[in-house]
Specification:
2 copies of one chain form a homodimer.
Chain A (H helix, E strand, L loop, with lengths): L2 H5 L4 H32 L7 H18 L11 H20 L2 H18 L3 H6 L1 H32 L9 H11 L5 H10 L3 H27 L12 H28 L8 H21 L4 H14 L1 H4 L2 H32 L7 H29 L6 H9 L5 H8 L5 H23 L1 H7 L8 H5 L3 H10 L2 H18 L6 H4 L5 H7 L2 H11 L8 H16 L6 H16 L8 H12 L1
Helix pairs in contact in A: 2-3, 2-15, 3-15, 5-13, 5-15, 5-18, 7-8, 7-10, 7-16, 8-10, 10-11, 11-12, 11-13, 12-13, 12-15, 15-19, 16-19, 18-19, 22-28, 27-28, 27-29
Chain lengths: 600, 600
C-alpha cells in the first residue's frame, strides 16, 4: 500500500485528511510497539528502561527513517517510485508539524496526565509533608528558575563574545528558559519507586514536588512572557512591569487553584447504582474544570491538578465502589496513552522538526545550569526545612531528590508552545536533549542509585502505618497551626456537607444550627454514625468512625485544645484520617476500635 | 462572569481559544444536565423518554436561548451590556458552526458508537438470524433508498409545479436523501428492549439490521455521490456511471469489511497480567483500524464495525478477565458520551444552524416516504424470508420492526456532512425533524407498543437458552451450508490459531501437519483441553469444552456429516458455541457436562 499513489487524482482536502489519518496511524503503531515492548520488559522483569524511555527510542527511530530513510538526492532522480516516496516523506515531515498544533499538548494530552497525578497523590504522606512540598515547589522552582536564567544569560553573553550567537537572545528569554526547564517530571523514578516499594515519605516529597512544580513552571513562564517593560528600552529592568508579572503569577495561580478546588468540591455525585452515569459525570466535570479555567483566562492544567486533588479528597468518598474503580481505570488508560504519546512525539521531533538550532555551548551550559539550579534548590531548602522538621530529610534523601530531577512532558510542552524566534528554537532543541539525557541516564540509574544511597525499599505499608509515639509528635510538629485549623474546619463542616463520610453535621454544628444541620445531613451519614455507636458492629468503616471520635472531641475542646490528652487524640485522629486512602491495606480491627472505647 | 468583557483587549487567537473552550463547556454542561436527569428518571423508573431524547430537548432549549434569549432589536440599542451580550450571542451562533467541523462527527464521535455496537452484538441470536439481518440490511436498505428517492422526486416535481422550489434539486439528490434517511438507529427501542428483557430474536433482528444498515447507508450515499454521468446532460441516466457507482459500493464495502475483519483478527493480545497494557493495546488497535481504512480511502466507520464484531468473536477470548471488563467499560463510557453529545448537538442545531430551509411540502412528503419505504422494506422481505425460515418472523414482530425504524445519529451525521447546496440544506432540515419526531414519538411509544402487540417481555434467558428439539432443527434450517462451512473452518482452524479457546490444532489438523500444529498451539489451549478430559474437573470453562467435543466430531464426520447422530451433535455444538457470550447468565453444570459424557 503506497500512500502517494493512492493520493493521486484526489482533491486537496481529501488528501490532507488521508495524510492526517496516516500520521495518526504512525503514532498509534509506535504506541503499539511501545506497549508490546513494555510487556516484554515487564514479563522479563527488566527495570533499567522505563516505558517513556522506550517510547522516545521508537520515536527517534521512526524520525530517523522519515528523515534519512532515502537519500535526499534520489528526489531529483527520475525513477517514479523513489521520487514519489521521497516526496511523500517530505510531505510527511511538513505535515507532522502542521498536524500537531502545540496547543494539542496543552489542551488534550497534558490534562489527563496532570489530573491523574493529582488524583493519585497518596494523601497521607502528601499531607504529612505538605509544608516541605510547597517549599520545594514554589521557592525551589523560583530559585531554580532564577539561577538557571542568570547562568544562561552568562552563557549567552559568552556566546555573543565569541561570535557564536547569530540571533537575538534577551534576559527575559533566559528567564523563560529557566522557568520551562525547572519543571521536573520524575515519572520514570516514581514508577520504579512504586515497583520497589521505596520509602513513602521520599516518594511523597518527590511526587508532590514534581506535580506542584509543573503548575508553578507553567504559571511562571506565562508571567515572564507577560513581563513587558514600558517605553523604548524593552529589555531593561522595569519595576512596575516586574510587579505586574508577579501580580499575573499570583492572579493566575490563585484563580486556577480556586477554580479547580471549587469544581472538585462541586462534583459530589450521589448517583449510586449507576456506575456508568457516575463515571461519565466525573469525567465531564473534570474536563469542564479545564475548559472553564481556559475560558476565564486562567490555566486549565493547573485547575485540573487541584480539581484532581480535591476530588480525591471529597468526591472519591461519595462514589460507589464500582465507580471508584472505573474512574481510576479510565484515567489510568488516558494518562498512559497521553504520556507515551508525548514521549514518542519527542523522539520523533528530534529528527522531524525543521528549525532545530544546535548550539554546543548553549547545550553544555544548560546542562551545567540545571545541575547547579537543582542543587541550589534541594540542598539549601532541605537545610532550612530540617530546622523546622523533627523528622529530618536525611542526606541520602536529598541526594536522591537531586538525582531524580528529570525533565519530561511539561518542559517539552512549554518549549514547543512557541518556536517562532531564534531564542525559542535554540531552547526547544536544548530542552529536547535535556529530556532525552535525563530520562535515559538518570531514569535508568534509579535502581542502582537507590541501593547505593541505602534507601530502604520493600517497605511494608502495614508497618509503615503503625501509629507510634514518635509519629504523633512528628505530626504535631509538622502540621502547623494553619493546617490544623483548616483540617478542623474541613473535618467538621466541609466533609459532612460534601460527602457521606465524616460525622453528621448535627453533632459538629452548634445546637442553634440544628435545623440547618439536619437538612444538610444525608441519611447515609446518620447510618454510618449509628453503626459507630453500636460497639458490636462489624460494619465499622474507615473514615466515619475515626472522624466521629475526633468530631466529638473537637466540639468540647475546639478552641482550647490545650489538655495534653485531648490534644494528642486530635492529632491521632488527624493522622489516621490521612491514612484513610491506604487503609484497605491494613488489618482493620486493631486500629479502629481503640479511639471509640477510649471515649464513649 | 461575562465572556465578552473578559475577551476585550486580548488577541484574536486567544479570544477564539476562549470561545472554543466556552462552546465545549456549554456542551459539557448540557451533557451533565442530561446525565443528572437520566439518573432521576432511572431512579424513579420513568421509561417514556430515553436519554437521547432528553439530550435533544436540552440541546433545543439551549439553542432557543442562544437564538431568541434577547430580542434582536436590542442589538441596536446603546445599552452596553445588552449589546455586548447580543454580540456575544451572534458570535457564539457563528462559532458553534465553525467549531464543530462535520468531519468531527465522522472521525471522533461515530467510531466509538459504531464500534461499541459491533462489539456488543449478542453473538448467539445474531448468528442465528444472520441471513435475515443481512437481507434486511442490504436488500431492505436498497429498497428503502430507491422507494424514498423516487417518492421524493415526485414530491420535488410537485413542488416545482406549484412554484415552491427556489433552487435546484436533482434526481441524484433525492436518491442521496433516500440513502441517508434509510439508516435506522433504534437506540431508544433497544435500550427499552434490554430493560424489559424482550424477545431475543426480535432484539437481534432489530439491532443487527440497524447496525448493518448504518454501514450500508454510509457506503450507499458515497456511491451516489460518486455517480457522475459523463458529458453535458449531467442528470440523465448513464449506464456506465451507474455501474461505476455499483462498483464503488462493492469496492468500498468489501474493502472496509476486509480491513476491519483483518485488524480484528490481528489484535489477538496475549499480554496477560497487565490489564492496563491490554486495554490500551485493544483501544489503539481499534482506532488504527479506523485510521488505516481512512488512509486507504475506505470507510473507517464500516471498518470499525467489522473490527468490533471480529474482536468480539476472537480477541475477546484472549483477554484476561480483568481486561474484558475494562475494555467493555471503556467503550461503554466513550459510546455513552459520544451518543449523548451527538443528540444534544442535534437539538442545538435546530435553532443555531443558519441555513435551514423549512419546506412543509417536502417535510410532509418525506414523512410519508419514509413510512412507505420502511413498509416496503419490512413486509415484503419478511414474507420472502418466511418462505425459507422454519422459525417464522411473526406478524407482531414485523409490526414492531416497522415501528422501530427510528432515525438517529448516522442520518444526522450524513446529512450535516455537506450542507453547501440548496437541496442539501433542505435535506438537513428535514432529517433533523424526522430524527426528533421518530425518537420522541416512536421511541416514547415503544413500551405501549410492545404490550399492544403482545410481544413477550421478561424472557428468562435461562429458559430461552435451553436446547430443545425444536431449536436444533430450526438452527439446521437457518444456518445455510455456506455459513456451516465457514463455521467449521473458523472453529477448527481460525479459533485455535487466534485464541486460547477452541480445540488444540493438534486434534483438528490432519496428522501430517503435526509439527506445524503443535508449533501454533499455545500451552493454555492444551491446558483447557486437558481439563476437559478430566471428568472430575471443576474448572471446565465455556468455550473450550464445548468446542472440543465439536472439534472431535468434526474430524471424523467433517466432509460427510450425514449421519443423523453426528449431524445433530454438530448442530448442538454450533448452537452452544454461539451461546458462549451469554453463558455467564446460566447455571453451568447442566449444560456443560452433557456433551462430554456423551462422547468420551
Amino acid at each position: 500500500m503506497d500512500p502517494p499513489e493512492l493520493c493521486l487524482g484526489t482533491g486537496h482536502a481529501e488528501e490532507s485528511h488521508r495524510q492526517d489519518s496516516f500520521n495518526m496511524l504512525t503514532f498509534i503503531l509506535l504506541l503499539t510497539l511501545t506497549i508490546l515492548t513494555i510487556w516484554l520488559f515487564k514479563h522479563r522483569r527488566v527495570r533499567f528502561l522505563h516505558e517513556t524511555g522506550l517510547a522516545m527510542i521508537y520515536g527517534l527511530l521512526v524520525g530517523v527513517i522519515l528523515r534519512y530513510g532515502i537519500p535526499a538526492n534520489s528526489y531529483h532522480n527520475k525513477t517514479t517510485l523513489a521520487s514519489l516516496t521521497s516526496a511523500w516523506q517530505l510531505q510527511t515531515l511538513c505535515l507532522f508539524q502542521v498536524t500537531f498544533d502545540p496547543e494539542v499538548f496543552f489542551n488534550i494530552l497534558l490534562p489527563p496526565i496532570i489530573f491523574h497525578a493529582g488524583y493519585s497523590l497518596k494523601k497521607r504522606h502528601f499531607f504529612r509533608n505538605l509544608g516541605s512540598i510547597i517549599t520545594y515547589a514554589f521557592l525551589g522552582t523560583a530559585v531554580s528558575c532564577f539561577v538557571i536564567g542568570n547562568l544562561m544569560y552568562g552563557v549567552v553573553k559568552l556566546m555573543q563574545a565569541v561570535g557564536q550567537l547569530t540571533g537575538k537572545f534577551y534576559y527575559t528569554d533566559c528567564l523563560f528558559f529557566g522557568a520551562i526547564i525547572s519543571a521536573t517530571d520524575p515519572v520514570t523514578v516514581l514508577a520504579i519507586f512504586n515497583e520497589l516499594h521505596a520509602d513513602g515519605d521520599l516518594y511523597a516529597l518527590l511526587f508532590g514536588e514534581s506535580v506542584m512544580n509543573d503548575a508553578v513552571a507553567i504559571v511562571l513562564s506565562s508571567s515572564i512572557v507577560a513581563y513587558q517593560p514600558a517605553g523604548a528600552n524593552t529589555h531593561q529592568f522595569d519595576a512596575s512591569a516586574f510587579f505586574k508579572s508577579v501580580g499575573v503569577f499570583i492572579g493566575i495561580f490563585s484563580g486556577s487553584f480556586v477554580m479547580g478546588a471549587a469544581t472538585g468540591v462541586v462534583t459530589f455525585t450521589k448517583l449510586h447504582c449507576f456506575p456508568l452515569l457516575e463515571t461519565a459525570l466525573f469525567f465531564l466535570m473534570s474536563w469542564s474544570t479545564f475548559l472553564l479555567a481556559e475560558a476565564c483566562g486562567f490555566t486549565g492544567v493547573v485547575a485540573v491538578l487541584f480539581c484532581g486533588i480535591t476530588q480525591a479528597h471529597y468526591t472519591y468518598n461519595n462514589l460507589s465502589e464500582e465507580s471508584t474503580k472505573r474512574t481510576k481505570q479510565l484515567f489510568e488508560v488516558l494518562h498512559f496513552l497521553a504520556e507515551n504519546f508525548i514521549f514518542s512525539y519527542m523522539g520523533l521531533a528530534l529528527f522531524t522538526f525543521q528549525n532545530h538550532i544546535f548550539s554546543p555551548v548553549f547545550i553544555i551550559g544548560a546542562f551545567i545550569a540545571i545541575f547547579i539550579g537543582r542543587a541550589l534548590n534541594i540542598y539549601p531548602l532541605s537545610f532550612l526545612l530540617n530546622l523546622g522538621r523533627r523528622h529530618k530529610i536525611k542526606g541520602n534523601f536529598q541526594h536522591m531528590m537531586m538525582f531524580a530531577g528529570l525533565r519530561g512532558a511539561m518542559a517539552f510542552a512549554l518549549a514547543i508552545r512557541d518556536t517562532a524566534t531564534y531564542a525559542r528554537q535554540m531552547m526547544f532543541t536544548t530542552t529536547l536533549l535535556i529530556v532525552f539525557f535525563t530520562v535515559w541516564v538518570f531514569g535508568g540509574g534509579t535502581t542502582p542509585m537507590l541501593s547505593w544511597l541505602h534507601i530502604r525499599v520493600d517497605v511494608d505499608p502495614d508497618q509503615d502505618l503503625q501509629p507510634s509515639a514518635d509519629r504523633q509528635s512528628k505530626t504535631k510538629q509538622e502540621s502547623a497551626w494553619l493546617f490544623r485549623l483548616w483540617y478542623t474546619f474541613d473535618h467538621n463542616y466541609l466533609k459532612p456537607i460534601l460527602t457521606h463520610s465524616g460525622p453528621p453535621l448535627t453533632s459538629t454544628l452548634p445546637s442553634y444550627c440544628g435545623p440547618l444541620a439536619s437538612c444538610l445531613t444525608t441519611p447515609r451519614a446518620y447510618e454510618n454514625h449509628e453503626q459507630l455507636r453500636d460497639p458490636d458492629s462489624d460494619l465499622i468503616r474507615g473514615d466515619a468512625d475515626l472522624t466521629f471520635t475526633f468530631g466529638d472531641t473537637a466540639i468540647t475542646a475546639n478552641g482550647a485544645a490545650n489538655g495534653k490528652r485531648s490534644g494528642s487524640t486530635s492529632e491521632e485522629a488527624l493522622e489516621r484520617e490521612l491514612d484513610s486512602r491506604e487503609q484497605e491495606l491494613l488489618s482493620r480491627g486493631t486500629r479502629l476500635v481503640f479511639p471509640i472505647e477510649d471515649h464513649i
